[in-house]
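Exercise 7. Given the components listed, write out the predicted structure of the assembled complex. Treat all entries as one system.
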Amino acid sequence: MDIIAAYGPQFLGLACIAGFFMAWGIGANDVANAMGTSVGSRALTIRQAIVIAIIFEFLGAYLAGGEVTATIRKGIIDPELLADSPELLVYGMMSALFAAGTWLMIASVRGWPVSTTHSIVGAIVGFAAVGISVDSVSWGQVGTIAMSWVVSPLLAGVMSFALFVSVQKLIFDTDDPFAQAKRLIPAYIWIVGFMVSMVTLLKGLKHLGLDLAFGFGSQFGNALVLSALIGLVIAVIGAISLRGIQYEADEDNRFASVERVFGVLMVFTACSMAFAHGSNDVANAVGPLAAVANIVQSGGQVSAVAAMPAWILLTGALGIVVGLSTYGWKVIATVGQKITELTPSRGFAATLAAASTVVLASGTGLPISTTHTLVGAVLGVGLARGIAAIDLRVIGSIFASWLITLPAGAILAVIFFYTLRGIFG
Amino acid sequence: MASPLGKLLGRSPIAPIQRHMQLAQESVQLLCELIAAAMDDDAERVTEIHKLLTGTCADARTLRHEIRQELPGGLLLAMPRPDLLTLVDLQQRICQQTRRTAQPLVVRGLRLPPALNKGTEKLCTQVAEAAGSTLAAIRELDEMLEQGFGRHERRYVTRMLDALGRQVQRCNAQQLRLAQQLRKQEDKLDALDGLFLYQLMQELNAIADQCGDVGEQLHLLLAQ
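Answer.
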């Protein structure tokens, strides 16, 4: 208690800096994967991608990031066990931030693909299991999270497969694909709007204190109707922007005009992907920060239930945006250059499937890896014979990164934890 | 930080395969020019074109190697790997066949009797057309992928392949007529020349058959 009273503001300041730094890292590295499919398929220029990312990462983090942040803050560790020594939780969360941040820096320098989500979760489990006690970890929740890491790419793959097959059957394999595209794409745009609104309204807006009562019975009913309407508005906007696209005969590629129609759809999908990514990954930065802030501001009380201050999500969102504008645009360009085999129709299927999965996970409070989910989604399109060649060895490298990142984050967190304990007592 | 997404999408083999067929078709065009030069008895031009022909065939061989190398085992492909590799092999045979056809004209200085010029020209044109149709069909590979191997694209390409089949039959018929014409000229010719002339017509016609084989393989790919 005394330690908290003595060093409270310092801890908070340190945690803020560390949290902002993590968020910066997420914006600089991770967002590229979310926006890469849009830039690679040439549906967006890099500048457009950055603008969309800035707006929608921020919105996603602020409007829908609450649940996952809560999980990171208090879902992985059982706070009750630390009621007597709250400073351990403070040290631990700060260690987790430092550890994850350090690991990301190492990976960046070495050029390894690493998931920010896995780093922070591994770090938290690490310091808790080793630094405090094995019982302090909610292993049930950890198990659920680990399962979600396997389920999310699979789910995204199934969704992208279904989406792409529907696009093939309804648009491409017809007498006039271009006309079919102009007719049906607004419906797909509606799906994008509906899906994002639905999850956000159901789960994400609690911390803003909005009460949506339109008299449709349950919260679910209200959300359903409102989402359908929002989707309709967005679909109409999409339909209007489609009007300008004319059919141009292209000898090299008879479906070039169809792809341009899909390009419009990709813009909406890119927005949803940025939103989804912000909603899930902001927690990696501000979850630990929220834990520290909660303890410091309550003077040492480790309460399991506490409101999520808006300023914390704001800090994370801002960090992501700054990271994106300073360094992230370069990484987006690099990733975009390597994904040129992806056309808008493929990119759309993969991105929408991934965005849906991530937003669903965010609503359920599960921190997942956006990048791995995207890989699963692209694989789904490949299985539907939508892509000429997919390198399956990447799956092996993903398993390898899981095996390395979790222990690495844990070990680093333990080191930082004991260091902090040594310094502050 | 490296992204798995960057490495996830392997290089599509379709563009190189299409380029390879283009080289094969160019070799057929060069062969026709070579035969025309032989008819004019322009030995210099014959040698010149022959050099271009062997160059084109060498490029095709290199490209085939590259295609094979770019298709490693860990790839998930939209079309089955063995069928794709067989397709490239069949395309390569067109190149080999054009070289084989050209050889007696260059090495032995074989010349056609003027009475056969028109018929040979007609056969050349028909073989070149068959090669052109084959190239057009192979160019549909990326459209097939784009459209998702659906019914419409399959019908479209099947129509092209039917037309190719008819062209190959016309080449066979024309080769027979040409051989009959040669029979009538036999006593005016040197015995060895006569033999080589028969062979020339057969080899020339064989190019069309090779084009037909490529078409058949493409049809097989479609049927997946």
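Discussion: Chain A touches chain B through 53 residues (CB under 8 Å). The radius of gyration of chain A is 22 Å.
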